[in-house]
């Protein structure tokens, strides 16, 4: 079954982070119940993946100022049918930052994500008030990604800006708990 690798990844995450079992169970429930969980049309939500990008020294973190949500977030997006969440995170990181040398911090058969999160995406309406997209959940699988070499990011169509932040700068631009949790988990 195409969902088995993600379920195995969730099992590994659950074993390493037992205090987060409620979040793991919530994502697992979606994956088990919906064969189409990797498609953005799946409701009540679907699998997404994102990248917490840092330098090898883990002293700076790359965020994008999201065009639709109007806030600083880690790069990420929809699986769009792709079933390997780590590959989705890498694809989104590359597309949204333009950085040429990215690598997963954790590799191999026992690799686990940095974090898991389920969050609600609000409904979107056009200028006339017609519904474009209903409110739904993103079941986000989040990976730690290291940027090597040229660290000059490029702005994509999905964001207003892309910028490196020190820990102090990060805390000054966001109070979003899920972003701050990524930072705390990524620092040695």
Q: How would you sum up this structure, described in words?
A:
By secondary structure, the protein is α+β, with helices and mostly antiparallel strands. The chain has one domain (4-186): Nucleoside Triphosphate Pyrophosphohydrolase (Alpha-Beta Complex). Helices cover 30% and strands 30% of the residues. It contains five helices and ten strands, in the order ααββββαββββββαα. Strands 1, 2, 3, 4, 5, 6, 9 and 10 form an eight-stranded mixed beta sheet that branches. A two-stranded antiparallel sheet has the order 7-8. Strand 1 (45-54) and strand 2 (61-66) form a beta hairpin. Helix 1 (4-16) packs antiparallel against helix 2 (21-33). It is globular and about 40 Å long. This is NUDIX domain protein. Pfam families: NUDIX (PF00293). Residues 44-188 form the Nudix hydrolase domain. InterPro entries: NUDIX_hydrolase-like_dom_sf, NUDIX_hydrolase_dom.
**What integer value in Å does the Rg equal?**
16 Å
By helix and strand content, what is the structural category?
Answer: alpha+beta
User: CATH homologous superfamily name?
Assistant: Nucleoside Triphosphate Pyrophosphohydrolase
For the record, give the distance between the C-alpha atoms at the N and C termini, rounded to a whole number. 36 Å
CATH third-tier fold name: Nucleoside Triphosphate Pyrophosphohydrolase
Helix content: 25-40%
Specify the CATH class: Alpha Beta
Note the beta-strand portion: 25-35%
Low-confidence stretches: none
From the spread of the alpha carbons, the general shape counts as: globular
Number of helices: 5
- The number of distinct structural domains comes to 1
Number of strands: 10
- Reading the helices and strands in chain order gives HHEEEEHEEEEEEHH
Pfam families: NUDIX
InterPro entries: NUDIX_hydrolase-like_dom_sf, NUDIX_hydrolase_dom
Protein name: NUDIX domain protein
Domain Nudix hydrolase: 44-188
């Amino acid at each position: 079954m195409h969902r088995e690798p993600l379920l195995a990844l969730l099992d590994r995450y659950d074993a390493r982070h037992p205090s987060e079992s409620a979040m793991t169970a919530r994502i697992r429930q979606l994956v088990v119940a919906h064969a189409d969980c990797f498609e953005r049309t799946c409701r009540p939500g679907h699998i997404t993946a994102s990248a917490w990008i840092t330098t090898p020294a883990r002293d700076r973190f790359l965020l994008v100022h999201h065009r639709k949500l109007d806030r600083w977030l880690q790069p990420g997006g929809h699986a769009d049918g792709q079933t390997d969440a780590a590959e989705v995170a890498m694809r989104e990181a590359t597309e949204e930052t333009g950085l040429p040398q990215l690598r997963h911090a954790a590799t191999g058969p026992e690799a686990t994500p940095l974090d898991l999160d389920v969050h609600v995406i609000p409904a979107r309406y056009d200028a006339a008030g017609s519904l474009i997209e209903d409110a739904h959940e993103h079941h986000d699988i989040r990976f730690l990604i290291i940027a090597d070499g040229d660290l000059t990011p490029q702005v994509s169509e999905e964001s207003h800006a892309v910028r490196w932040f020190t820990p102090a700068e990060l805390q000054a631009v966001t109070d979003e708990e899920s972003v701050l949790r990524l930072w705390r988990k990524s620092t040695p």
